[in-house]
Amino acid sequence: MSMDSSLPRRNAATESVQQSHRKIRSRLRRLRPQLDRRRAPLSPGLELPEWAIDSVVAVLVTVATVGPQVLDKRAWWVIGLALMASVPLLWRRRAPLPTLGVVGVGIIALACVHALPVLPYGTVVCAYTIAAYAGTVVRAVAIVIGVLGILVSLVLPSEPIEAYGYAALSFVTAWALGTGVRARHTQIELLRERTRRVEEERIAAVARERVRMARDVHDIVTHALGVMIVQAETGPLVTHTDPARADATFAGIADTGRAAVNELRLSLATSRDGRESARHQPNLAAIPDLVELSRRGGLRATFHEKGERRTVSGEVAVTAYRVVQQALANTLEHSRAGCAEVVLHWSESCLTVGISDDGAGEPAADSATAGSGSGLFGLRERVESCGGVLSSGGSGTGFTVVAELPLEREP
């Protein structure tokens, strides 16, 4: 039985999905450590939770803000303002705007009594947190509050003009750092989502490949066994009366078995190693071989081709072959037909594959297996998957199967 030397495109799509999946996972592994630096691991499998990080930050800012006031022996109410400008950072994630408001008021009060630390640590941390983790509305409100707070803290104590640039630079720097972290978070989430979708596509591609293999194995085995059974039943009847015909019958059994084994090997090799050299599939040129095998099985089969042959996609060629293979197998096994006719009719837009016989009609055995996805039921799914239409039914003289296939696989 001849095989197609063209390479079907369905497996290339599977490999492309898998390659894209590997690239995304590699990129995600490179970016993940940068995202998780804020959650320093204490030991393998143990990381600091957010509340612990917030507590550490609040303690450090409190020490940096309150410490100078204590060392300078400020009044108790000044130390209270320093606590007001630092301790609320414990709630910076849960209530970003209220935290910014309280801390901002404390910073402004310290500025008015000329008790500001080296940096307005509280507002800087709030600006970073809101830029990194808050929503769009909260960020917009925070910008307005921050600008107003900076102006008030500079105008009321009559600070020099240089202080404006210094305060604005600290606020903008903190905001830029937070925006960078937000962008990193967004990038990580996009990669995760893309990875999830690629994984779903890979699983779907594997499932489609398994269905394809199951259909191929069913078609190959059903056709080969149907021919071999008919030949095996015919051989003993002519062993003594026509030895030459008996020898040809038994030789046909061997040829059919070898062809089926070879086709199964090539079909299974596609799933086993995915190499290009293993992806040979039968095509339109192999259809006459199917008709010849049916003749060896005792069926008076004929093959006709009408119209000018055109170029078709690999999937359409394989589907046309499988339609003929399954229809002839049903004819040999179930319909008790004496003759069959296979016709390929070419037009400008489609290829029509017709198989008719003079048997008893639709095979009960095939319809019984329809629920398992084999027979005409599975064949209809195969035809529809490449954009075609399959029809079948009894005629006045037997049973007919007709498949209309597009010349090119529709996207």
Question: What would you say this structure looks like, in words?
Answer:
The chain has 411 residues and is of the alpha+beta class. The protein is built from 12 helices and 7 strands. It has helices at residues 10-35, 50-71, 76-84, 96-112, 121-133, 136-155, 161-238, 243-273, 287-296, 314-333, 364-368, 375-385; strands at residues 41-43, 46-47, 300-306, 339-346, 350-357, 389-395, 398-406. The strands form 2 sheets. Strands 3-4-5-7-6 form a 5-stranded mixed beta sheet, with helices on one face. It has a two-stranded antiparallel sheet with strand order 1-2. Helix 7 (161-238) packs antiparallel against helix 8, helix 7 packs parallel to helix 10 and helix 9 (287-296) runs parallel beside helix 10. The longest helix is centred in the middle third of the chain and has 78 residues, at 161-238. It is rod-shaped, with a radius of gyration of 39 Å.
Q: Per DSSP, what share of the residues sits in E-state strands of 2 or more residues?
A: 5-15%
- Rounded to the nearest angstrom, the radius of gyration is 39 Å
> Which secondary-structure class do the elements indicate?
alpha+beta
Can you tell me the residue ranges where pLDDT is under 50 for at least 5 consecutive residues?
Answer: 1-14, 38-46, 274-279, 364-373
Helix and strand run: HEEHHHHHHHHEHEEHHEE
Q: What's the count of strands?
A: 7
Instruction: Determine the number of helices (DSSP H or I, runs of at least 4 residues).
Output: 12
State the distance separating the first and last CA atoms: 31 Å
Largest sheet entry: 5 strands, mixed
Shape: rod-shaped
Strand order of the largest sheet: 3-4-5-7-6
Question: What average pLDDT do the residues reach?
Answer: 75
Helical residue percent band: 55-70%
